[in-house]
Design brief:
Blueprint (H helix, E strand, L loop, with lengths): L4 H36 L3 H20 L5 H18 L1
Length: about 90
């Protein structure tokens, strides 16, 4: 258990940051799953419009350093490729 005031504050800040990052990551995963569901249901037009929202969420997460920028780019590429295969 930390004793110094700075250590206690750092522990509180780390907890807040972890929860914020977790919230962003789970919303990202949900958005990607919803996109996959739209593709499997053959809703191509809805999937195209929803893909822009997913791209935006990925870019924001990468900008905040929640995920690595290369990871965001890789996921965007794979999602776009999956969409182009269905059309």
């Amino acid at each position: 258990m930390p004793r110094r005031r700075t250590s206690l504050k750092r522990k509180r800040a780390d907890k807040k940051r972890r929860l914020r990052n977790l919230r962003v990551k789970t919303s990202l995963k949900k958005a990607m799953k919803k996109f996959q569901a739209l593709l499997s249901a053959k809703n191509i037009n809805e999937a195209k419009t929803y893909l822009a929202k997913v791209f935006s969420q990925l870019d924001k997460a990468a900008k905040k350093k929640i995920i690595h920028p290369n990871t965001a780019n890789r996921k965007k590429s794979r999602l776009a490729r999956r969409l182009s295969k269905t059309t």
